[in-house]
């Protein structure tokens, strides 16, 4: 068992990989001497990432490169790496070097001195990200912490250091829709924040376009909260009160001998009610779709091949 595992999910990161390998190696040596491993997971990249990883694995015995069968998404690629790593301490980092690997040493020191099981990075600032990304991320983390019962820290990504027992607890959770930063918060133990400034991407562009961001946010919300389902009962209550008021108004108007105007108000009510009902149905659909996905119990990811390191048992017997 190495003292330290560094796990990195990679999707189309060919321009980052050589620099990533160099900086991770430096940071790992600094923190753990020679007793470490680096696990790079290729999440179905369509560029030359896998070829570079294979080359790196040939030249560095401490590097294990895992090739998934296709693009499974950030959280599942990360899960594959976490399943396959063997270290006593596990350091999770993105491939784009937005989170400085050099913080590893201080994070390890915090873990030891505080006897913490998790030391998670908290973004004090975010360089090189669009105002749109910063605003949506800001809103998302705050909405999430209001909607959920689990205390999910705000402005925290997957950049973190974990103990083996915290990782084992995480890996015991079987769900398909994985929001790992929330799942880690759920397991408990002592978890310490570690504020840092997020840099720009080393190279390339974000691998989280809007569609992926929305799916990620929905996974987080539906995975950690049933509060949206209660919106239906709130809407129902509000509409009931509204309809009683409307009945009273109509009764009053008729008794005063006035005609109640027809078409416009009628259409308005039909359209508003229809919209609310569709919205609630769609919301229920989100949960049902996820239930369906979970019920199928498919494997979380498929490994195609592994380069470097010893063969290690994973979930699928690789
Ligand atoms: N990533 C991945 N699979 C995907 C999308 C992203 O493995 O389908 C990896 C990506 O290579 C990076 C990390 O997840 O290491 C975070 O992605 P990115 O930096 O593009 O996200 P951002 O920082 O822009 O939110
Ligand atoms: Mg990034």
TrEMBL record:
Gene3D superfamilies: Spore Coat Polysaccharide Biosynthesis Protein SpsA, Chain A (3.90.550.10). Keywords: Cell membrane, Glycosyltransferase, Membrane, Transferase, Transmembrane, Transmembrane helix. Residues 5-170 form the Glycosyltransferase 2-like domain. It comes from the Bacteria. GO terms for cellular component: plasma membrane. The chain crosses the membrane at residues 235-254, 266-288. GO terms for molecular function: glycosyltransferase activity. It is a multi-pass membrane protein. It is found in: Cell membrane. Belongs to the glycosyltransferase 2 family. GtrB subfamily. PANTHER family: PROPHAGE BACTOPRENOL GLUCOSYL TRANSFERASE HOMOLOG (PTHR48090:SF1), UNDECAPRENYL-PHOSPHATE 4-DEOXY-4-FORMAMIDO-L-ARABINOSE TRANSFERASE-RELATED (PTHR48090). This is Glycosyltransferase family 2 protein. It comes from Sphingomonas lutea.
